[in-house]
Specification:
The chain has 90 residues and is largely without helices or strands. The chain has helices at 72-77, 83-88. Helices cover 13% and strands 0% of the residues.
Length: 90
């Protein structure tokens, strides 16, 4: 389930939000780095997409062509890559 970076509430299913799309709950922009699957604070320019241009304000709408809405559920499942192994030895 996709959610807003600001209020953490679910966002209606938009495959790719446009630059002007906002959260219906809090009004925050949706096409922002903080909602993107490629955003990673430890990466160069805080983005894992090497071809993307630098975006200064990560919480403001931008024109990035590589934007993909992040799925927090997918990240939660991959948090501990050794969970399966740990469960084997309990």
């Amino acid at each position: 389930m996709k959610s807003c970076f600001h209020c953490r509430k679910p966002v209606e299913a938009l495959p790719r939000p446009g630059r002007g799309d906002t959260c219906s709950h809090c009004g925050s922009d949706l096409k922002v780095c903080l909602n993107c699957a490629f955003h990673e604070a430890s990466s160069y320019n805080e983005c894992r997409e090497t071809s993307a241009e630098r975006v200064k304000d990560k919480d403001k709408a931008n024109f990035c062509e590589f934007f993909e809405f992040r799925d927090p559920e997918a990240n939660r499942k991959a948090d501990d890559p050794f969970k399966g192994l740990k469960d084997l030895f309990k």
